[in-house]
Amino acid sequence: MEKITTERVYRVGVQGMHCRSCEQLLVKHVLEINGVTAASADAEAGTLTVAGDESAFESGRIDAAIVAAGLAPVGTIEASAPAMERATGECPTVTDTETVRTAPPAVAPASASPTTAEASFGVTGMTCASCVAVIEKVLGGKPGIVRANVNLASEKVTVVYDPATMDEAAIVAAVKSAGYTATPLGGATAAAPVQTTGDSGGRATMQLGITGMTCSSCQTVIERSLTATAGVSKAVVNLATETATVDYDPTVVSVDALIGAVKSAGYNALVLPQ
């Protein structure tokens, strides 16, 4: 006997979506809610359509998912159409009759923390202004973060946060959840070189995050600059991952000198944790 479940379809306005990345991030968060069977987002229309069991729409779960994606719900989630009954395995349908009220809800101001900290991170993987918007939205939706400013040109994000409820590791994880890689810009996070077997003088391999590359010519310029540095035996730059893997002799050349070689070519580099 087929199991009959009661399912509703809701549509809610969403502020802050700009591109396909925003849509995908929002749908990802909504589909993680138990009871949701389907979800779609439309950045151009500024709407989110969700189908699922009634339990999925309890306790503000949809609003919470929208906020977790760094966006803002507009109006109260509400369906004007009656509940639908469907057999298990049958695909839900979404009609244009389900609408929501469009008045934005009142948002209580966040309490200010007497003490805040500021940290900067190198960010790799950004290609356009939409990437900037996605990262800022994701970070801005995290408790404890007061402000996040992303600079596409320098591939850097500066975050003001409350250290009582947020730390650098959580910020890095939040950026990663948006599909990018963040590395704290500070000596404390620089990884020590990994020693490898080989020459008696000692060999090491270092991976650097490179910011500022836009094409294969940038890749070639950086590789030439690194390999021309005394003590470097090999340098491979990956444009897609924005990294450089360098084999070098630490008794001849320092990590600072490797970073300096990249900077002399017109780019920025930072040591990636191993």
What's the short story on this structure?
Helix content is 23%, strand content 32%. The radius of gyration is 24 Å and the shape is elongated. Strands 1, 2, 3, 4 and 5 form a 5-stranded antiparallel beta sheet that branches. Strands 10, 11, 12, 13 and 14 form a 5-stranded antiparallel beta sheet that branches.
Round the Cα radius of gyration to an integer and report it.
Answer: 24 Å
* CA-CA gap between termini: 55 Å
Sequence of secondary-structure elements = EHEEHEEEHEEHEEEHEEHE
Uncertain segments are 80-113, 187-198
Tell me, rounded to a whole number, the average pLDDT.
76
Largest sheet: 5 strands, antiparallel
Identify the overall geometry. elongated
Counted beta strands: 14
Number of helices: 6
Helix content: 10-25%
Strand content: 25-35%
Content-based structural category: alpha+beta
Keywords:
14 strands; alpha+beta; 274 residues
Which secondary structure elements does this structure contain, and how are they paired or packed?
Layout (H helix, E strand, L loop, with lengths): L3 E12 L4 H12 L4 E7 L4 E7 L7 H8 L3 E3 L9 E4 L29 E8 L4 H12 L4 E7 L4 E6 L6 H10 L3 E4 L9 E3 L6 E9 L4 H12 L4 E7 L4 E6 L6 H10 L3 E4 L3
Antiparallel strand pairs: 1-3, 1-4, 1-5, 2-3, 6-8, 6-9, 7-8, 10-11, 11-13, 11-14, 12-13
Describe the structure.
- The chain contains six helices and 14 strands.
- The protein is elongated, with a radius of gyration of 24 Å.
- It has 274 residues and is an alpha+beta fold.
- The strands form three sheets. Strands 1, 2, 3, 4 and 5 form a five-stranded antiparallel beta sheet that branches. Strands 10, 11, 12, 13 and 14 form a five-stranded antiparallel beta sheet that branches.
- A hairpin with a 6-residue loop joins strand 10 and strand 11.
- It starts with a strand and ends with a strand.
